Amino acid sequence: MNTGLLLYIPYRHLENRVMDAIRAAGFDVTLAQARLLQRLDPDGSRLTELAEAAQVTKQTAGFLVDQLEKAGYVERVPDPTDGRARLVRGTDKARAAAPFAEAEITRIEAEWEQHVGRRRLTQLRDTLTKLCEITDPYR
């Protein structure tokens, strides 16, 4: 199995469990919407930046933002640096979902630590953090 797939399988497991926890807490979002919400800058993001960060087309990002806005998870606000532009910003409703996601991630990481040991999990995190230096253009 290649390294990319070895990275993806645990991530997919984590993502599915986080989505289950969020939905169980009463937040009705799709996986595509959640992936877009993850990429929102706390101060707001331009639609083009959001599409690029989420690796979707501008049209797809616009469609997802429309859905999220209608459901009350985001709002469009004027960009203070450019009067013609708008920013997409998360609402209190979106921020209210974060503790449920974070709690599930904490549980998962505790399970992983129990399975592989603290030293190995720390080494994995350190290695992945180092790899992000050359693989994450949005750092």
UniProtKB/TrEMBL annotation:
Q: Does the keyword DNA damage apply?
A: no
SUPFAM superfamilies documented for this protein: Winged helix' DNA-binding domain
Which InterPro entries does this chain map to?
Answer: HTH_MarR-typ (IPR000835), MarR/SlyA-like (IPR039422), Tscrpt_reg_MarR-type_CS (IPR023187), WH-like_DNA-bd_sf (IPR036388), WH_DNA-bd_sf (IPR036390)
The record's section on SMART domains has: HTH_MARR
UniProt KW Protein biosynthesis keyword? no
Q: Where is the HTH marR-type domain?
A: 1-133
Q: Which domain of life is it from?
A: Bacteria
Kindly provide the name given to this protein in its UniProt entry: MarR family winged helix-turn-helix transcriptional regulator
- From which organism does this entry originate? Prauserella oleivorans
